[in-house]
């Protein structure tokens, strides 16, 4: 089984080829046009996808050693994501599958973030809990099987990646600021400043409060000292990151206890965060958890994870028709 997979949900154009469940490559073109706007501009994202898609697909096929004629199916991200961005990938996948006379496989991007754990060893065993933390989502997912997942908790407002990026923006850092907060936090004191930890019912999260808290905190301190940010950047980053991680792990611990599960995975762009990874190592020895963290390149948006999901759908015979449409708010 050879599948070509395409990812175009946000601002990464990516293509990958998977052969009998083994990822052969993972070509990613990142869009830089958004940097100066401090966030992804949807219209510019879809235009950039149009420019990048054909070269990226070409490279994926060429470097795989598999010819177009040997492909068994074409897979693509159906949602969730930006409608204009999704449309580019969906339309391209449809035309290619139609031209080659092979089936189409629609993939849920959030399921794929979780299935990134099956690209390489060590792989979690079912059932496990996955904390999916990305630019658009914050979810606790009970993973019962490859394609059988249940969201047991999620954010009621912003995603944690958004909280990282918005904090970075308030600090005057470029977009996406998450990785920069991570970098500066490394040499900062996480207890230097105190920010409120939201207290949400059950397994829900809330990240909109901290954004406002950081805004007022900076405004008040800048009034006294115009150089407050530059003089305290590392401590501010460490303190905000500490608070965000606390909010995540607090609910993760609760979920693990409630479901009596010790196999814990993290997925999505924020799982690249070194503070979160460290904290999970601590928790794994404290609670006897087995913790799974994907390789860095499979944390943020990539087509390899879409290919992995497509492989399992192929095995189950789950294909879609040429009349399929993208779903910006697709649920797991
Ligand atoms: P979704 O998957 O919900 O549709 P998305 O695809 O935009 O959203 P990803 O690409 O999975 O999200 O992740 C991007 C997010 O990850 C951004 O918010 C970015 O700041 C954050 N991020 C990446 N690396 C780090 C890091 N080291 N520390 C904190 N945040 C990070
Ligand atoms: Mg992205
Ligand atoms: Fe994503």
Note the main attributes of this structure.
332 residues; alpha/beta; six-stranded mixed beta sheet; 9 helices; 11 strands; globular; binds magnesium ion; binds fe (iii) ion; tRNA processing
What does this structure look like?
- A hairpin with a 2-residue loop joins strand 8 (138-145) and strand 9.
- This protein has helices at residues 42-64, 83-100, 109-115, 160-170, 178-185, 208-224, 228-258, 274-287, 303-315, and strands at residues 2-7, 12-19, 22-23, 27-30, 73-79, 104-108, 128-133, 138-145, 148-154, 263-267, 290-292.
- The chain has 332 residues and is of the alpha/beta class.
- It has nine helices and eleven strands.
- Bound molecules: adenosine-5'-triphosphate, magnesium ion (MG) and fe (iii) ion.
- Residues 9-10, 80-81, 109, 113, 134-137, 161, 164-165, 176, 178-179, 182, 268-270, 272-273, 300-301 line the site of adenosine-5'-triphosphate (ATP).
């Amino acid at each position: 089984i050879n599948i070509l997979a395409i990812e175009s949900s946000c601002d990464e154009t990516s293509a990958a080829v998977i052969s009998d469940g083994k990822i052969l490559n993972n070509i990613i073109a990142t869009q830089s046009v958004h940097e100066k706007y401090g966030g992804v501009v949807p219209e510019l994202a879809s235009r950039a996808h149009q420019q990048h898609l054909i070269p990226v697909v070409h490279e994926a096929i060429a470097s795989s050693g598999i010819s177009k004629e040997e492909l068994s199916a074409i897979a693509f991200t159906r949602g969730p994501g930006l409608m204009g961005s999704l449309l580019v990938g969906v339309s391209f996948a449809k035309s290619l599958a139609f031209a080659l006379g092979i089936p189409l496989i629609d993939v849920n991007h959030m399921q794929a973030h979780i299935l990134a754990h099956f690209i390489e060893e060590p792989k979690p065993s079912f059932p496990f809990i996955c904390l999916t933390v990305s630019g658009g989502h914050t979810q606790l997912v009970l993973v019962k099987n490859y394609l059988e997942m249940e969201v047991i908790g999620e954010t009621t407002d912003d995603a944690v990646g958004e909280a990282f990026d918005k904090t970075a923006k308030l600090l005057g850092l470029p977009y996406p600021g998450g990785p920069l907060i991570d970098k500066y936090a490394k040499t900062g004191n996480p207890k230097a400043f105190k920010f409120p930890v939201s207290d949400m019912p059950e397994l829900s999260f809330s990240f909109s409060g901290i954004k406002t808290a950081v805004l007022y905190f900076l405004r008040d301190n800048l009034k006294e000292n115009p150089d407050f940010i530059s003089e305290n950047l590392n401590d501010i980053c460490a303190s905000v990151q500490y608070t965000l991680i606390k909010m995540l792990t607090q609910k993760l611990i609760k979920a693990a206890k409630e479901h009596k599960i010790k196999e814990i995975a993290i997925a999505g762009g924020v799982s690249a965060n070194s503070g979160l990874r460290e904290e999970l190592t601590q928790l794994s020895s404290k609670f006897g958890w087995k913790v799974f963290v994907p390789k860095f390149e499979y944390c943020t948006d990539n087509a390899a994870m879409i290919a992995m999901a497509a492989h399992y759908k192929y095995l189950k015979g789950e294909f879609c028709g040429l009349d399929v449409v993208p779903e910006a708010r697709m649920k797991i």
